[in-house]
Design a protein that fits this description.
It is built from 17 helices and 15 strands. By secondary structure, it is α/β, with parallel strands linked by helices. The chain has a seven-stranded parallel β-sheet, with helices on both faces. It has a six-stranded parallel β-sheet with strand order 12-11-10-13-14-15, with helices on both faces. It binds 6-O-phosphono-beta-D-fructofuranose.
Length: 452
C-alpha cells in the first residue's frame, strides 16, 4: 500500500459553515465520491487536497488543519470551472445527456471558461500537489473525477518521476466528438500522464482505451477497473441512530402497503422525470396498485445555479403534477438533503427504483439492499455501473424505456416472497463481501504495482 498518500478531489470530505451562534460547524460533503473516501481522512499518512467551497471553507483554508489542504481558488475562475465547464459540459458529455440536435452550443464564453476556469483551477490543484510532494517526495498522488482531468499533466511536467493515479467515478463514453480538438486531446493527454487510470467497470475502461486511441493514437497508461463500494459496518451503525429510527417510525406509520423508493441527487443523469412517467404508466395500466403503492422520491438538491439543473427541477415538478392529477396521493417527493431520512427509506422499501440514464456506479444500489428490512426488490438500469456486478439479483431496465420500467415495477411489486428473499439476500451478501475496504486495497495495490 503506497504511503504516504495525497488524495486530490474537488469536493472534500467535509465542508464548513457557521451556525446561528457564529460557531464553525462541519457537514458531510455530498455525493458518492465523498461517501466512499471519507474514511481516508482519519489516516495520519493521508493528505487530502480539495477546493474551498463555502466562505467558512475559505477561512479554514488559511489555517492549517492536519490532513486537509483546502485550495481557495480565485472566485471567477472557480465559477467558470464548476458552473460552465465541469458540470454543464463535462458531466453532460460523460453521461451522454444532450439532445445533440440543439446542445451543446459552444460559444466564445465556453472557450474562455475552459482557459480561465477549467485550466486555471486544474493548475492551482497541480501547484498544491507539487507543494505537498515537496514535503513528501515519496508520496503517491491519487486524483479523482472529471474536475481534474488536466491536473495530472501539469504535475507530470513539474515532477516527471512522481507516482500518479486517477480514479474516474463517472462513466466513460466512447463518443467525445462534442469536445473540440485540441481540448479533446488535452483531456486525454492529461489522464494519460497518470501511471494508472481506474474506472468502476470493464465497460468504462474499455471505452476509455478506445477513446484514447481515437484522440491521441494510443493508450499508454495502466487502465484498471474495480467497482467502488460502501463500508457496511458504518452504514449499519448509521441506520441504528435515534434520528434514523425516528424517521423509520414515521415512514412506517404513514406508508401504504407497498413502497417504491428512489434516492438521488436531483440530477438529469438520474432519470427522475422518466421515473415518474413510468410510475404513472404503472398505475394507469394496473388499477390494483392504486391506493396500495406509493412512490417516495428522496431528492437532494444539487448544482442549483446551473440553468440545466434548474430546468430539470421544473421538469420534475411537472412530471409529479401529472401523476398526481391522475392518481392523487400516489407520489411523495422530498427535496432536501437529509441523509437520515434516506437511510430510513432504505429500510422500508418494497421496490428500490434506480433508473439512471448513465451512472459511473450508483451507490444507492448497494446502500439500499444492505439496510432494507422487507426483502425489497432492486429495479436497476443496465447503464448503471453497479449493474455489471449486481445483474443476477435485480430486475433490469433500459433507462429510455418508460413502458419497460412500468412493467418492471409491476413485476417487482408482484414477486413472491421466496424469490424476493433469494434476491435480497444475494445482493446484501455481495455488498458485504465486496466492501469499500476491498476496493481501496485493490486501487492502492494498482498504484503500488505501477511504482515497481
Ligand atoms: O460521486 C459522484 C459525484 O458526482 C462527485 O464527483 C461529486 O463531487 C458529487 O457527486 C456531488 O456533486 P457536487 O460536488 O457537484 O455537489
Amino acid at each position: 500500500v503506497p504511503r504516504p498518500l495525497i488524495v486530490v478531489s474537488n469536493r472534500g470530505p467535509v465542508t464548513y459553515d457557521r451556525d446561528d451562534a457564529g460557531r464553525r460547524v462541519e457537514r458531510r460533503g455530498a455525493g458518492g465520491l465523498v461517501t466512499a473516501l471519507r474514511g481516508l481522512r482519519d489516516r495520519d499518512d493521508v493528505v487530502w487536497i480539495a477546493s474551498a467551497m463555502t466562505d467558512e471553507d475559505r477561512a479554514a483554508a488559511a489555517e492549517s488543519t492536519p490532513g486537509i489542504r483546502l485550495v481557495a481558488h480565485e472566485p471567477r475562475a472557480y465559477d467558470l470551472f464548476y458552473n460552465t465547464v465541469a458540470n454543464p459540459f463535462l458531466w453532460f458529455l460523460l453521461h451522454s445527456l444532450w439532445d445533440r440536435a440543439v446542445a451543446p452550443e459552444l460559444d466564445e464564453s465556453f472557450h474562455v471558461a475552459w482557459r480561465d476556469g477549467y485550466e486555471e483551477v486544474n493548475r492551482a490543484f497541480a501547484e498544491a500537489v507539487v507543494a505537498e510532494l515537496d514535503n513528501e517526495p515519496e508520496a503517491a498522488v491519487w486524483f479523482h473525477d472529471y474536475h481534474l482531468f488536466l491536473a495530472p499533466g501539469f504535475v507530470r511536467q513539474a515532477r516527471p518521476d512522481a507516482l500518479l493515479g486517477h480514479f474516474v467515478h463517472t462513466p466513460w463514453p466512447t463518443d467525445w466528438s462534442a469536445l473540440p480538438e485540441p481540448l479533446r486531446r488535452q483531456v486525454h493527454e492529461g489522464l494519460l500522464a497518470n501511471d494508472v487510470t481506474g474506472f468502476h467497470t470493464a465497460r468504462w475502461a474499455a471505452s476509455f482505451r478506445r477513446s484514447c486511441v481515437d484522440a491521441v493514437g494510443a493508450c499508454e497508461t495502466r487502465v484498471t477497473h474495480h467497482p467502488i463500494s460502501i463500508d457496511p459496518t458504518e452504514f449499519e451503525a448509521l441506520s441504528r441512530t435515534a434520528e434514523v429510527r425516528a424517521a423509520v417510525g414515521e415512514l412506517a406509520r404513514s406508508r401504504p402497503e407497498k413502497l417504491v423508493v428512489r434516492v438521488d441527487r436531483a440530477d438529469p443523469s438520474k432519470n427522475i422525470v422518466r421515473g415518474f412517467h413510468a410510475f404513472g404508466v404503472l398505475l394507469d395500466a394496473h388499477p390494483e396498485w392504486r391506493g396500495r403503492a406509493q412512490l417516495v422520491a428522496r431528492l437532494d438538491p444539487t448544482r442549483e445555479r446551473i440553468p440545466e439543473y434548474a430546468a430539470y427541477r421544473e421538469a420534475i415538478e411537472r412530471a409529479v403534477r401529472e401523476v398526481e392529477e391522475r392518481h392523487p396521493g400516489s407520489v411523495r417527493v422530498e427535496l432536501s438533503d437529509d441523509f437520515p431520512r434516506s437511510l430510513a427509506a432504505y429500510t422500508q422499501y418494497d421496490v428500490l427504483f434506480v433508473n439512471p440514464v448513465f451512472d459511473g456506479l450508483n451507490l444507492v444500489a448497494k446502500e439500499g439492499p444492505l439496510l432494507n428490512e422487507r426483502a425489497g426488490v432492486l429495479v436497476l438500469s443496465e447503464n448503471a455501473g453497479a449493474h455489471e456486478e449486481l445483474a443476477p439479483w435485480v430486475v433490469t431496465i433500459n433507462p429510455n424505456d418508460v413502458e419497460g420500467q412500468a412493467r418492471a415495477l409491476h413485476e417487482a411489486l408482484s414477486m413472491d416472497e421466496s424469490e424476493r428473499r433469494r434476491r435480497a439476500e444475494g445482493l446484501a451478501a455481495h455488498v458485504r463481501a465486496n466492501d469499500l475496504a476491498r476496493w481501496l486495497e485493490a486501487e492502492l495495490a494498482d498504484l503500488e504495482a505501477a511504482r515497481a
